[in-house]
Amino acid sequence: MQNIILIGMPGSGKSTVGVLLAKQVALDFVDTDVLIQTSQQRTLQAIVDADGQAELRKIEEGVLLGLTQQSCVIATGGSAVYSDKAMRHLKSAGVVVFLDVDLATLEARVQDFTNRGLAKDPDQSFAQLFDERLPLYKKHADITVQGAGLNPDDLCAEIVAKLRTVYSHASGLRN
């Protein structure tokens, strides 16, 4: 089984759904934000505060390019899609699933984005970041799943159903 790579905005459910999805389809789980924090011995926000968002993106690209895991659900950071090189690497080893959630739902789910370690310009609003990233998510996605209004279990079921429908190699996925 190839990897299932989850992309989307902060608050779209990548980490939460990723754990559930991995259990459901009997794959390992990797959260690249955790890999970044572990490798740097500090939080994403601490990286942004000390070194800026460009440095966070550079570190993230290095972590993504270093991934060699197989048979994993991989939850990426929201800014992973800024690196075409990293996304090509991820796509070569799996299926990229975009968790598409509208701005209002994202803002309701995560009410304080100031400590999330977002790779954004200091004066950039969350709505501006959303508008900037949306075309990148669509560009890199193999599958798009609408996540608004779905609880994590229903979102997992929707992802599995789309994988089964779109990719014949996913027919072995278990419920």
Elements, N to C (H/E) = EHEHHHEHEHHEH
Mean pLDDT value: 88
Q: Gyration radius, to the nearest Å?
A: 15 Å
So what's the overall shape?
globular
Q: How many strands appear in the DSSP assignment?
A: 5
- Strand portion: 5-15%
Give the CA-CA distance, first to last residue: 15 Å
By CATH reckoning, the class would read Alpha Beta
SS-based class: alpha/beta
SSE blueprint and pairings:
Blueprint: E1 3-7, H1 14-25, E2 28-31, H2 32-40, H3 44-51, H4 53-65, E3 72-75, H5 84-91, E4 94-100, H6 103-109, H7 126-140, E5 143-146, H8 152-166
Walk me through what this model shows:
- This protein has eight helices and five strands.
- By secondary structure, the protein is an alpha/beta fold.
- The chain has one domain (3-172): P-loop containing nucleotide triphosphate hydrolases (Rossmann fold, 3-Layer(aba) Sandwich).
- Strands 2-3-1-4-5 form a five-stranded parallel beta sheet, with helices on both faces.
- The longest helix has 15 residues, at 126-140.
- The two termini are 15 Å apart.
Question: Quick recap of the structure?
Answer:
This protein is of the alpha/beta class and 175 residues long.
Task: Give descriptors for this structure.
175 residues; alpha/beta; Rossmann fold
